[in-house]
Write a structure and sequence with these properties.
401 residues; alpha/beta; Rossmann fold
Chain lengths: 401, 401
């Protein structure tokens, strides 16, 4: 009986620890590994042998871990480059040193590329006793193959709830006003679209639909004419037909070659005010809070994320199970139900699953019934939150212990 | 048996409707008035005779009303000016027309000035059959005399929770980073201070403490040197010793002569980056969400707000009870407990209760134990939230019916 290691990478979500909790609990219920190591700060920390022992986590700690947002093991943006052979050699030496059979990597599509690259390397070097298993997470919901991504639903629930609440707020005055809610979503409009679950969104601007200023401002004018208000949701990744981001003025780079965005809502505000389409605009950028607001997790999200961790763990009993990502498949039928499956990490790595353009209504007027039918089951249910001193109780991050 | 009217004014809170629910329930339990009218959009709508009948609200609706954020009757920023005699004459004529004995006005210190002005007018004109009763609300917690203000605790709970969650988020990476959380609080630091309930705040910038750039940046450098991170909370009303707001570049006016602020956090970010105190800063402006995020209300806040409505209603049985605001008095003793009382609205109108400077630790290093002991009991408990389709169930605003 060898050991396993589990690590987290990329931007955190409010349920990324539920998947970690699932791996740990899976091994307690069905011991495949002697020790479950936690690798701190993803690949970056594993290469520095920064490990913690999670094997005997108590049930109480496991429960609190599930409600704790943001990667409890820490994260990294360190990209394992295929050309950097030294990193690969070092990593495999560490796995050997600690007798680690399986590495579970919880992350988004960059992390799935890491799983893919490590399994490729092992195959190319006839290393048959190391397995690499990916567990998905991303608030962006943009991973291929899986029906949806752990972390998305809880962010969507918070976004839809905040849309509803701020809409109530902006309507209390009779004065003319546009409210603009900015969500994350660099390349995919899933998060912005989720605001439509509130039922109050007038206009939604997704990255998938090229932004036509005149059409958009025309719709703002219609809303103002009709009710003196307009509730707009805009994705940080909203862009013009030529690919220029609305927020282009603030574009930077995160080290992976991704643009770091911000300010799409302010760009829309400037357009509205300067065009005279409305006389007053208020902006709410949900920013970091939307991906870590764990006190209103979706119960469906928490349970699926936990079970995906268990599923990955269980599948790894097969010595040939490597280079795979576990995912969620939605079953046919009226009542929402899922099953878990696995797909090659290469099917997921470096791809983006966009929000279907056919699910967007014309002229930014929201999303179709099909989109709502897809999203609504995901945000159902609320876990019972354990509080301490009036704020939610969270585990102390392992990287701080 | 005459009638009463209840209306809401000023910026909404997440529990302003709990006070409304309390007035309605109070009259159901102890009928003083034949009809409980709701006046839409505060004084503005009352002058237009835009009323709804709330007398027989069901218990189910009353419960959902308590969890619904933002003024369900609508609000206004219309200021009743003492010089505008026509408004006063019109209002008293309307009260006579509808046989309204008592007007309950739920609002902040501008609203208390309205209560004061109306009772003064009545006294000056020997009108003895109209009573004006104020019920406090403001997320800013800056009303005099009352121990604290309905709405503050729920906003504080959300701010402290968000601070904790975003702190977990910013710490997952090993890179150097300052996180800056901006809260409301035009003149008073109560909301910014509430973030300290999370236990993770490094530096807090309150309006009451003149901002000294060099001292502040020195503390940022110390945090960075110690742990490569710094968690900063800044009030929108933060200002230099000469009174200039940090966010001065964006100052506007809301019609009451108050500056409308925004951008204090971005101003701090610019200072930090341009000084080289840290290489990376992230900003989260809680904006509108902090005052309407009702899905994590403080149970203490909801219950007190409801009971204040009942208290105001009950006290108004006394024909001489006018020009008064009901408030909360904290009892002596180890265990948090309160009683309700009334004070002249003139004691509250147009005053501001600041965060005590002696409760701020030197060099922006947070708040004292006394401050925590004051705030902590207020954010305790969580109401059971009723959901519908995955988002909280809210009443449809009366001004939209």
């Amino acid at each position: 009986m060898g050991n396993c290691i589990v690590a987290q990478s990329g931007g955190p979500t409010s349920v990324i620890n539920a998947t970690l909790a699932g791996v740990v609990k899976g091994n307690q219920l069905n011991p495949i590994y002697k020790t479950v190591y936690g690798g701190l700060n993803g690949i970056e920390g594993i290469l520095e042998e920064r490990f913690v022992d999670l094997t005997n986590m108590s049930e109480a700690d496991n429960y609190i871990l599930r409600q704790t947002p943001s990667s409890a093991l820490g994260s990294c943006r360190y990209k394992l480059k295929r050309s950097n052979v030294a990193d690969f050699e070092k990593l495999f030496a560490i796995l050997e040193k600690y007798d680690i059979d399986t590495m579970f990597y919880i992350g988004g599509n960059d992390s799935m590329d890491t799983v893919y690259a490590l399994s490729e390397y092992a195959a190319a070097h006839n290393i048959t006793n190391r397995r690499f298993v990916g567990c998905p997470k991303t608030v962006d919901n943009d991973l291929m193959v899986t029906d949806h991504c752990p972390g998305y639903a809880s962010a969507a629930k918070f976004i839809a709830t905040t849309a509803l609440q701020t809409w109530l707020d902006v309507n209390v005055y009779t004065r003319q006003e546009v409210f603009i809610l900015e969500t994350m979503g660099r390349d995919a409009g899933w998060l912005a679209a989720s605001a439509c679950l509130s039922g109050i969104v007038d206009l939604v601007v997704l990255p998938e639909i090229p932004f036509d200023k005149d059409v958009f401002l025309g719709e703002v004018r219609k809303c103002i004419a009709e009710k003196n208000k307009c509730y707009v949701v805009v994705s940080e990744g909203a862009r013009y037909a030529d690919g220029t981001y609305l927020a282009a003025g603030e574009a930077k780079n995160d080290g992976f070659g991704h643009a770091v965005l911000g300010g799409a809502a302010n760009a829309v505000k400037d357009l509205i005010l300067s065009s005279g389409a409305a006389s007053r605009c208020k902006v709410q950028d949900l920013s970091t809070a939307q991906r870590c607001h764990a006190s209103e997790q979706s119960l469906v999200d928490v349970e699926e994320s936990f079970k995906l961790g268990m599923s990955g763990h269980m599948r790894s009993a097969d010595p040939k199970f490597t280079g795979q990502m576990v995912g969620v498949r939605r079953k046919e039928g009226e009542v929402y139900d899922v099953e878990y499956f696995a797909t090659a990490a290469s099917n997921v790595a470096n791809h983006v699953k966009n929000f279907p353009v056919e699910w967007a209504l014309p002229n930014y007027r929201g999303v179709t019934k099909e989109a709502i039918a897809y999203m609504k089951p995901l945000i159902q249910g609320s876990p019972v939150v354990t509080y301490k001193d009036g704020v939610p109780a969270y585990v102390k991050p392992y990287y701080m212990r």
